[in-house]
Predict the structure.
Amino acid sequence: MRTTILDIQKLKRRGERIPMITAYDYTSAQIVDRAGIPMILVGDTLGMVVLGHPTTLPVTLDEMLHHIKSVVRGSAQAMVIGDLPFLTYTTVDQAVHSAGRILQEAGAQAVKLEGGAAVVPVVRRLVELGIPVMGHLGFTPQSVNQMGTRVQGKRANSARQLIADAHALQQAGAFALVLELVPAQLAREITAQLRIPTIGIGAGPWCDGQVQVWHDFMGLFTDFVPRHAKRYAGLAETMTAALQEYMTEVRAGTFPTMEHSSSMDAGELQAALRQSDDPTTARKPTEGRQ
């Protein structure tokens, strides 16, 4: 039985913190599900950590669907939330089409979109149609060309706008809200004011839950770790060492061994060799049509 939005909202009412993590493929989804994480976000961050783009902007809806499908197949208990990528919810009708595909074709249970007051009509309509929506405020990666990668809401006016946007999204029917790169004190205030859960990333310790990017969490990158991320493993180093050991064994001829191989009966091999050496068994060339 998958986690539902009602389960997530009950966790807030009980004061229980909510862990969420991103996943982008079948195998990682299996691992997340086995660990008992209640929510998986298939984020458009896949554009950066999987596809190698400098931002999330090039990610298409079809690419999102491809990855969401694999995560849904790899999980059985976690609620799977799919990001609506850049320029796929510019109008209410377009948003309904895009979000509908994420639920109908890919099998996700909810969608996430970025923005405040401007997306309220979209959120309201999606919720009316039975599509659960998670909001996203603060630093919104799809607006990186406008705002840069920096903390949002540090001044009174911008903080006041974030609070208003959070209430507007809740009123429109969003079931939860991601707060990214928001001052911890402001995130605490928003969390206290809202009935719906807040999920922080770079927003301090007082949100109702936290989300981390799989590749940051697992230490799959060695060149850069965001300030808001914590490496819980160092898989890049472990995988590099394993690959170097493999390369050494292949070059030395110590892998594979017969332990990693299949065998056949010696008599069968000899019979096959005798037959292949017999010129009378060789196939004659096919004659062309007359």
